[in-house]
Inverse folding.
């Protein structure tokens, strides 16, 4: 059990560190990468997913393409992009955005697709425009699944953002990579433990948001005034 | 169907056994005591070590010694264990790193100091044969432009540069030849350190050429140093330990004949040879370690 004890010792020591290597700094960096990645990926994937879900167009291509993207190894992609863009934030952000897009896109179109077509037809027959159908019927009804997509993306990104340390950045990956470089296994185990804790906390937060979205899945309360 | 299931079950069981055996400190089946005539050659898991191991293997084979190959054995922690337990008998090693594996607190840095210290540090079962002049060690490099602009040709000159940015593997931050050594031995402080985990590979090179770092730690036999006209900084205080290539062999396998063959190989091997071999392995040609080894041995008249 000495590894366990050593890891606990390391966590206790690291808690008292200050500066770049402090746990609070590394956690903030890690959260920063995660938030930036999911924000960028959301701007790309969610509108696209909503459009695909609403129109039903290009669904097969979207499913195929995102399936292929899931298979890209993030570390390999990071190295490849890093060779073109150099070290810095851009390469890991791009690699992580590629990782985050598939669950976001899938959540967005699946959320819209799951809405009962009869409900959509009813809205259409009442004179809703396509935009109104999307924003007032489909998105509110599909919100729980869309948030589920974000939840899944956040979980994957927070667990994988450790790769940023590979190209000289910070985040919790520093503990893993610096620890491995000098065979400091307690540091690696401690860093992994922190990643797990952070991932569980974020997942719990999004589980709460998802429950909230499920409860409020009534369409807009403001009837259309035609 | 039944036989196929049987086969896969046996395969799984064999794999599990092999994994267990590989994990243990000592090998319960004692597979190491293979017949004394043959030598099992292992190597670290990177191309240069593999080429060197092939050179040893083919050199021995040419003199009629039976050789088994277990190349790409893993990192030092793994192949040294395999050597101690007798799973492998011979690996190419680097003197400085080998010494600091057995004696982490060593202060020896010059080639001679290290060779002397190695004799005491190694366990009785292992023997370091004569080291070659060929060396592959950490080296600090700057671009030609940076060298000219700042008048930097030696590590000592880096003291003149304010806000020095340095890129290297993460261990450079804590190892004695790294940041602590630069501070203590050369009095260089306030270094902005960027850890890049590719062992002085393409990402490190790119960071140096882009100016993201001023100085990059790149292994001294890497072809990219010459290819990009990098200036390797002198190390007048011997901060970076010597890393001469030497054969590390199990004592019970080091017969006079074997030693004689390996000594001849070490005597012929130079740092320039390593650079040329690496360049052919990593460059356009992507030549295989076995082919490179054969070519080198033939050129040197050893086979």
């Amino acid at each position: 059990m000495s590894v366990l004890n050593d890891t606990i010792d390391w966590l206790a020591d690291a808690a008292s560190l200050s500066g770049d290597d402090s746990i609070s700094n590394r956690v903030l960096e890690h959260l920063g990468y995660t938030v930036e990645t999911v924000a960028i990926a959301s701007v790309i994937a969610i509108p696209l997913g909503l459009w695909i879900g609403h129109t039903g167009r290009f669904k097969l291509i979207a499913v195929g393409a995102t399936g292929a993207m899931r298979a890209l190894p993030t570390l390999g992609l990071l190295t490849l992009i890093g060779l073109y863009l150099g070290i810095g934030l851009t390469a890991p952000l791009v690699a992580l955005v590629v990782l985050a897009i598939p669950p976001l896109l899938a959540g967005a179109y699946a959320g819209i697709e799951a809405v009962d077509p009869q409900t959509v037809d009813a809205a259409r027959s009442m004179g809703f425009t396509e935009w109104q159908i999307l924003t007032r019927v489909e998105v509110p009804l599909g919100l729980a699944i869309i948030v589920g997509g974000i939840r899944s993306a956040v979980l994957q990104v927070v667990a994988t953002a450790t790769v940023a340390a590979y190209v000289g950045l910070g985040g919790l990956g520093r503990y893993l990579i610096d620890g491995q470089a000098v065979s400091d296994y307690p540091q690696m185990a401690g860093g992994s433990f922190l990643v797990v804790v952070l991932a569980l906390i974020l997942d719990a937060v999004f589980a709460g948001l998802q429950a909230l979205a499920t409860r409020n899945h009534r369409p807009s309360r403001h009837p259309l005034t035609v | 169907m039944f036989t196929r299931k049987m086969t896969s079950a046996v395969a799984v069981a064999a794999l599990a056994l092999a994994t267990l055996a590989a994990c243990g400190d000592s090998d319960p089946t004692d597979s190491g005591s293979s017949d004394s005539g043959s030598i099992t050659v292992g190597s670290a898991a990177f191309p240069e070590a593999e080429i060197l191991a092939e050179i040893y293997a083919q050199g021995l084979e040419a003199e009629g010694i039976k050789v088994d190959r277990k190349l790409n054995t893993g990192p030092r922690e793994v192949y040294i264990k395999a050597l101690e337990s007798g799973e492998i008998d011979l690996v190419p090693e680097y003197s400085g790193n080998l010494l600091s594996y057995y004696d982490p607190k060593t202060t020896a840095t010059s080639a001679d100091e290290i060779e002397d210290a190695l004799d005491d540090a190694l366990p009785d079962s292992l023997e370091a044969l004569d080291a070659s002049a060929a060396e592959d060690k950490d080296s600090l490099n700057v671009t030609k432009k940076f060298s000219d602009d700042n008048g930097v040709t030696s590590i000592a000159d880096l003291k003149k540069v304010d806000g020095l940015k340095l890129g290297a593997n993460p261990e450079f931050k804590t190892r004695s030849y790294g940041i602590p050594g630069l501070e203590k031995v050369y009095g260089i402080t306030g270094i902005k350190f960027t850890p890049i985990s590719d062992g002085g590979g393409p990402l490190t090179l790119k960071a140096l050429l882009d100016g993201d770092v001023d100085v990059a730690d790149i292994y001294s036999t890497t072809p990219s140093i010459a290819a990009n006209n990098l200036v390797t900084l002198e190390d007048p205080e011997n901060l970076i330990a010597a890393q001469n290539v030497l054969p590390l062999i199990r004592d019970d396998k080091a017969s006079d004949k074997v030693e004689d063959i390996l000594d001849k190989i070490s005597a012929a091997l130079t740092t320039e040879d390593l650079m040329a071999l690496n360049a052919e392995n990593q460059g356009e040609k992507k030549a295989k370690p076995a082919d490179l080894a054969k070519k080198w041995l033939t050129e040197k008249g050893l086979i």
